[in-house]
Design a protein that fits this description.
Shape: globular
Oligomer: single chain
Helix content: 25-40%
CATH topology: Rossmann fold
CATH superfamily: P-loop containing nucleotide triphosphate hydrolases
Largest sheet: 7 strands, mixed
CATH architecture: 3-Layer(aba) Sandwich
Strand order of the largest sheet: 1-9-8-7-2-6-3
Number of strands: 9
Distance between the termini: 38 Å
CATH class: Alpha Beta
Order of helices and strands: HEHHHEHEHHEEEEHHEE
């Protein structure tokens, strides 16, 4: 008997996909009658360097997403109350809804996270929305240097994963004043003694490169938690590799005239070099570190997301993939 596996047709792949795919226009219609609560000036303040976002983008993509998340949070709150009744634990505290935001360097994760935070805060059932980045859980530069990991900064092994898991576990346990380390992009390091305090928000957004990365599965079945185990919803921001490469280099060149000129900047030495030298350095950093991390650790987690936002060459989101329930 012929045991060869026949390739799937495109229609079979569509039917078997765990996602429902929406064009930009189709997704924009799902805004329904939700009002746009951000102004153009607010959106401008929320965007990151070299990550343009317009009020139209917010209305077409992020407003429908905030509406969906508001519905999901309300449903989860109802489920939590039902579970409390079942367990006869009426004194249990409310559990925050946690959203993960993942994607490559230079794809616009920070802008997405901040815009979502601003929109979700304006929904009546989620007035308190906090945001943390996993950068704070990177090992300090001194430790990375000791371990020979400075060239692997941003890779899974460069994080204090245990501390991040304990932080998320405390958040999900409803604990008060949970603390996370603070990271400075200016000095390119964790700031000693500085912390972010998270105190029982309605929603917590967790943004980072590898937040959807699973741990290595143990052969003996030991329970090992993943960071994403604590997420109720996750967003992956996707783009073509060539676009990510171009955005990264362009951002590096723009930083030479802005943040790199600060005397305290870790990258101060790059502010005075020629543009050709800067391009060479940016290309080297991209190919040696960021591209490798993208291919080895970030892209493989894309299919674990609840929602995938696919950007075009101009940063404009062209399609939205929502995981089927």
């Amino acid at each position: 008997m012929d045991q060869r596996v026949m390739p799937l047709s495109s229609s079979d792949e569509d039917n078997l996909s765990p996602y429902r795919i929406f064009s930009r226009d189709e997704w924009a219609q799902l805004r329904a009658d939700a009002p746009l609560t951000l102004t153009a000036e607010e959106v401008l303040r929320l965007q990151s360097l070299n990550d343009p976002i317009s009020l139209d983008e917010v209305a077409a993509i992020y407003l429908p997403l905030s509406r969906l998340l508001s519905l999901y949070v309300a449903a989860t709150q109802g489920l939590f109350k039902a579970t409390q009744r079942f367990l006869m634990a009426e004194n249990d505290v409310k559990v925050p809804y946690i959203i993960g935001v993942a994607g490559s360097v230079a794809v616009g994760k920070s802008t997405t996270a901040r815009v979502l935070q601003a929109l979700l805060t304006r929904w009546p059932n989620t007035p308190k929305v906090d945001l943390v980045t996993t950068d704070g859980f990177l090992l300090p530069n001194a430790e990375l240097s000791r371990l020979g990991l400075m060239e692997r900064k941003g890779f899974p092994e460069s994080y204090d994963t245990g501390a991040l898991l304990r932080f998320l576990a405390d958040i999900k346990a409803g604990k008060r004043n949970v603390r996370a380390p603070l990271y400075s992009h200016l000095v390119y390091d964790v700031v000693p003694g500085e912390e972010v305090v998270v105190d029982r928000p309605d929603i917590l957004i967790v943004e980072g490169l590898n937040v959807l990365q699973p741990a290595r599965m143990p052969r003996d079945g030991t329970a090992i938690p993943f960071v994403s185990d604590f997420f109720d919803f996750s967003v992956y921001i996707d783009a073509e590799e060539a676009d990510l490469h171009r955005w990264y280099v362009n951002r590096f060149l723009r930083l030479r005239h802005t943040a790199f000129r600060n005397p305290l900047s870790y990258f101060r030495r790059y502010a005075e070099i020629s543009e050709d030298e800067a391009i060479t350095i940016a290309e080297g950093l991209w190919n040696r570190i960021n591209l490798l991390n993208l291919r080895e650790n970030i892209i493989p987690t894309r299919q674990r997301a609840s929602l995938i936002l696919k950007k075009g060459a101009s940063h404009r989101i062209e399609t939205v993939a929502l995981r089927r329930l």
